[in-house]
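Before relying on records like the one below, remember that each one covers exactly one chain. Contacts with other chains, cofactors or solvent are not represented anywhere in the record.
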Amino acid sequence: MESLVTIRDGKTMTSLEIAERTGKRHDNVLRTIRSMEPAWVKVTGRKFNVLTFEDVKGEKRPMFELTKTECLYIATKFNDEARAKLVIRWEELELKEIAVFDAKIRRAQASAKRRNEIALRIHDIDTSITRLMSERKSLIKERYMIDNQDYAVLSFPMFPEWDCPKAGSFPNTVVLKKEDE
C-alpha cells in the first residue's frame, strides 16, 4: 500500500498513519476515534480535527488529524504492540523535529558569526578611513594648479597594496580637488 501519511511539522498524525503503523484497517481506526470523541469533548471541550483524502478510486474519504496527546489517548484502546508502535513513531517525529531545529540554529549561528566578522572588517576599514581623513593634510605629497583648479596628490604609504584608479599613474595615491579636502 502506498503511504497516505499527512504529518504537519511533526505535530500531528493522521488516522491513515495510525492505521498504517498499527496494522489496523483505517475504517476500524475511524470507528475507535469516533467512539472515543465524546469523552474527549467532555474533558477538553474540543473535537478531533476531521479532514478528507482521496482514496485509490478517487473518492473523498474522511480521516482524522490528531495531535500527539489526542493520538496517545486513542492508543489506549489498542493492544500493547500497537501502542508501542505509536509511541515510537511520536519519538521519531520529535527527534526529527529536534534535528531540524538544531540545523536551523547551527545555520543561524554560522550566519551570525559571518555577519560579525564582516562588521568587524567594516569597522576596521571605517576606522582607517576616518584616521586617514583626519590626517590627510599631512599626506599631501604635491599640489597642482590645472585650469585654475587646485589639486592635491595624497599618498597612503600604510596601504601599499591599494591601487587607486583616481590617481591614474600615481600608485597608492588619490587626487583631490581643493573643495574635497
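The beta strands are 12-14, 49-54, 60-67, 140-146, 149-155, 173-177.
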